[in-house]
């Protein structure tokens, strides 16, 4: 029997390290939300050196996407698409991107699980709201020079995630049967005000 002591300190990277980090992140995000969790806290929970977290993941947002979201999200590409056309249509493009993504069956099912199942459903939903506000929408508001970009991001996240919950989870009628083009048009007006317009 080998009785050699385990080396002290954080364990080095190995084939399971990425999965260990991802699982630790999922547990922390589910329990504490997005904003309160740091990469250093995830490293502690995974029992790895913080440098390994940065080795596998470029940012907290990238780790959140892999750990908790039901689909891959390239935030840089999403922002390029939303900001790449006429300024007057930013809200419409943002609304169409969100609604189209959520209408994919695997995304719809994944989001429904996040916000409706288990003891941590409230904090998981809060984590998704915080991520959506800070990483998806706030950078758009920042692009237009708004100093209150985080607030604007929160308003946009409330609008789109509220729409998703009302339409897909609660199945509120007539909202759940309203044509997508109508939802894009009306939600797009709200997102244009939140993210682009000057108040």
Description:
The structure is a single chain. By secondary structure, the protein is mostly helical. It has two domains: 17-68, Homeodomain-like (Arc Repressor Mutant, subunit A, Orthogonal Bundle), CATH 1.10.10.60; 75-195, Tetracycline Repressor, domain 2, CATH 1.10.357.10. 67% of the residues lie in helices and 0% in strands. It contains ten helices and no strands. It has helices at residues 17-32, 39-46, 50-56, 60-68, 75-83, 90-102, 105-116, 121-143, 149-169, 180-195. Helix 1 packs across helix 8 (121-143), helix 7 packs across helix 8 (121-143) and helix 8 packs across helix 9 (149-169). The longest helix has 23 residues, at 121-143. The N and C termini lie far apart (72 Å).
Shape: globular
Class derived from helix and strand content: mainly alpha
CATH architecture of the largest domain: Orthogonal Bundle
Instruction: Kindly report the name of the CATH homologous superfamily of the largest domain.
Output: Tetracycline Repressor, domain 2
Number of domains: 2
Remind me, CATH topology of the largest domain?
Tetracycline Repressor, domain 2
Q: Could you report the average pLDDT, rounded to the nearest whole number?
A: 90
Q: Give the tally of β-strands.
A: 0
What is the tally of helical segments?
A: 10
Query: What is the succession of H and E elements?
Result: HHHHHHHHHH
Strand content: under 5%
